[in-house]
């Protein structure tokens, strides 16, 4: 995948992450792009705002995209490596590629996805890392709740 295009697409997800943070939520954003480069859907983690633990950024973007006849050739762009829940969504629906802003703060299921034929592009984006590191430092309780661990990472 062209890295300049991946970074442009990541900007959409970063905008969503910033919006989520401004709303008092967890700063993770995502966008789903079609094989032709069309933005199909975008979303942010809204588990706090909606009091719904299932509303992760990837699921919000997926839902916003609406029903597609096929997800072959689509790209999920996310600011943070997808958790197991969101990795399962990628596998379940046959999303072909995942572009990840960063996998430093949380090393999710992207290696598992790669082992099952999903193209993975990790951008190691400094803004994404800083956004999550600042959030985790300020709200370890909320981060632990979101990621399914206690605040100590256990």
Could you describe the 3D structure shown?
With 154 residues, the protein is of the alpha/beta class. Helices cover 43% and strands 18% of the residues. The protein contains 6 helices and 5 strands; from the N terminus they run H-E-E-H-E-H-E-H-E-H-H. The protein has a 5-stranded mixed β-sheet with strand order 2-1-3-4-5, sandwiched between helices. Strand 4 (97-102), helix 4 and strand 5 form a beta-alpha-beta unit. Helix 5 (126-138) packs across helix 6. The longest helix has 20 residues, at 3-22. The radius of gyration is 14 Å and the shape is globular. Residues 150-154 have low confidence and may be disordered.
H/E order of the elements?
HEEHEHEHEHH
Q: Number of helical runs?
A: 6
Q: Biggest β-sheet, characterized?
A: 5 strands, mixed
Question: Could you give the distance between the termini?
Answer: 35 Å
Record the strand order, biggest sheet.
2-1-3-4-5
User: Which band does the percent of strand residues land in?
Assistant: 15-25%
Q: What value does the Rg take, in angstroms?
A: 14 Å
Secondary structure: number of strands: 5
The residue fraction in helices comes out at 40-55%
pLDDT < 50 runs, ≥5 residues: 150-154
pLDDT averaged residue by residue: 93
Structural class assignment: alpha/beta
Shape: globular
